[in-house]
Amino acid sequence: MSNKRATIRASVRELRNNLSSNQQLIAAQSLKMNFIQYLNGKKNTKKEHIAIYFSNDGELDTSLLINELWDKGHTLYLPVIHPFNGANLLFQRYEKNSPMKANRYGILEPKLNCTQICPLPELDYLLMPLVAFDNQGNRLGMGGGFYDRTLARLHQQHWQKPQLIGLAHECQKVTALPIESWDVPLKTIITPNKTYCW
Asked: Binding residues for substrate, per the UniProt record (predicted)?
């Protein structure tokens, strides 16, 4: 099964990396509109606590969405690799003036400040990157397992918050993914074209 997952991962990464800068810009604009429309559809006027991420490796660009969410007064958090357990993530508040550093993958994250960490159940939404997704809401990540391990305990408890939402280009959708026991499925995935709910 791992070979099949690796094959899917490689082919879909190639698809999204082949998108032009103009296609990426249009996709980022559509993502921003689709997610804001999704939030508005909840008919909830409170300011949300939303974990998001910096795009990497051809992922759907989140920068326009980040600025829009700030403009609307929401509180944002970015993943930080756990300093003592390097296989898990923490979510730290992210503001325009937050001091940043590159993690071991070269991705920027806030410099660790324990007073700015948000416990998972206090997040309203957790926006997650993915490499591929299928018709049942299954998610295939980059292979590091960071999100699956971080969410494993909550997944066993049938938690209500945060709501997990995957973000992806439409070209990342496949018919069916080979699933492992540790995979955390998603009930919502938002692409530039459509919002999928299961």
From this structure: 59
The annotation places the binding site for substrate at 59
User: Within its chain, how far is the Cα of 75 from the centroid?
Assistant: 16
Q: Could you give the CA distance from residue 99 to residue 113 in angstroms, rounded to a whole number?
A: 10
Read off the pTM: 0.93
The verdict on whether omega for the bond into residue 162 sits within 30 degrees of 0, i.e. cis, is yes
The pLDDT tens digits of the residues spanning 3-35 come to 899 999 999 999 999 999 999 999 999 999 999
Domains of the chain: 2-197 (3.40.50.10420)
CA dist., res. 134 & res. 113, Å (int): 37
Task: Enter the tokens of residue 82.
Answer: 């756990």
Q: Which helix (H) or strand (E) holds 8?
A: helix 2-17
- The H or E element containing residue 125 is strand 125-128
Query: How many residues does the structure list for the chain?
Result: 198
Binding site membership for ATP: which residues? 5-9, 139-147
Which residue positions form the known binding site?
A: 5-9, 59, 139-147
Q: Quick one: 167 exposed, middle or buried, by C-beta within 10 A (0-12, 13-18, 19+)? A: buried
